[in-house]
Structure to design on (325 residues):
């Protein structure tokens, strides 16, 4: 019955379709109907690309998966005073921020009986700080990609260029906040824990206490003391005694609670130092087997940040290359 019904339906559709085609084109109705009726018995899969158009379906979500970056870990910059509004430009290349430094405090007199009171000059010293300039390589976009792809490749390209620059700016900032070497006003201490198997000595809590004592003796104010732990040092503290860890670590985020007067942060791209000379490697330098990634201390009140101008360049291939700065 199913076969008979299918044949009857095919015959009926062929007659109606053949009659319509014949009237529209002037072809013989009988021959046209016979051809359509015969074609209805051809298996659908043997029609090649015609069958495929009815079988395969494609869904375009207009979404693009991007590489996740670690920009969210740059929170050690939170709370640092932003001087972006004071950035002055010299031409289109140099961007400079000017700070004024007063290196001395006025003397405090107690129960003074001597007049007139002595004068102590406080001339502000201008400290011009040139901002780094960041540029990215050009990304070509073809006409087909610009007009035919299912997502906004131009917008995506702009976003990835901006994220790449921001990631390098954060890495450069933690490098700049670290001292170049040990000085009389900034100690650089070497960790004293057990060897982790690579020749590196682990960070122990006693090292943090030792550093606190050193900056206490230097008279560093306690407000705004910030310590940015590198990955090795953070993991060293996480591997301490479980009772100790439960007391000093936030269990979900695995972050060190603020202790010893320090605001603890962590970052995965801290600068490297030479333990032998206690000097910082230049930015971008490849560390040797004896160099170690360092944790960085700074005071929020004595740090500054600023963003200069951002420009986006794009041009047609016929007129030249494009780049983003």
């Amino acid at each position: 019955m199913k076969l008979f019904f299918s044949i009857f339906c095919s015959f009926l559709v062929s007659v109606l379709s053949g009659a319509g085609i014949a009237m529209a084109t002037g072809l013989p109705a009988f021959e046209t109907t016979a051809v359509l009726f015969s074609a209805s018995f051809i298996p659908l899969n043997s029609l090649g690309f015609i069958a495929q158009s009815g079988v395969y379906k494609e869904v375009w979500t207009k979404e693009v998966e991007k590489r996740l970056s670690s920009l969210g870990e740059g929170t050690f910059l939170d709370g640092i005073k932003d001087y972006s509004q004071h950035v002055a430009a010299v031409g289109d290349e140099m961007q400079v921020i000017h700070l004024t430094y007063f290196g001395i405090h006025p003397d405090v007199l107690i129960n003074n009986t001597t007049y007139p009171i002595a004068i102590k000059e406080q001339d502000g010293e201008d400290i011009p700080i040139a901002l780094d300039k960041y540029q990215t390589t050009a990304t070509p976009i073809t006409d087909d990609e610009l007009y035919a792809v299912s997502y906004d490749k131009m917008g995506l390209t702009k976003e990835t260029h901006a994220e790449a620059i921001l990631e390098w700016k954060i890495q450069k900032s933690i490098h700049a906040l670290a001292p170049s070497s040990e000085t009389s006003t900034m100690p650089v201490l070497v960790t004293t824990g057990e060897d982790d198997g690579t020749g590196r000595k682990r960070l122990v809590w006693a090292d943090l206490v030792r550093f606190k004592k050193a900056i206490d003796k230097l008279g560093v104010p306690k407000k705004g003391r910030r310590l940015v732990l590198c990955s090795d040092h953070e993991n060293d503290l996480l591997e301490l005694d479980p009772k100790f860890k439960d007391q000093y670590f936030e269990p979900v985020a695995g972050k060190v609670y603020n202790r010893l007067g320090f605001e603890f942060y962590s970052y995965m791209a801290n600068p490297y130092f030479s333990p032998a000379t206690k000097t910082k490697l230049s930015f971008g330098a490849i560390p040797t087997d004896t160099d170690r990634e360092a944790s960085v201390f700074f005071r929020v009140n004595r740090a500054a940040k600023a963003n200069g101008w951002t420009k986006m360049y794009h041009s047609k291939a016929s007129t030249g290359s494009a780049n983003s700065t």
User: Anything to note?
Assistant: Confidence is low (pLDDT under 50) at residues 44-57. The chain is about 30% helix and 15% strand.
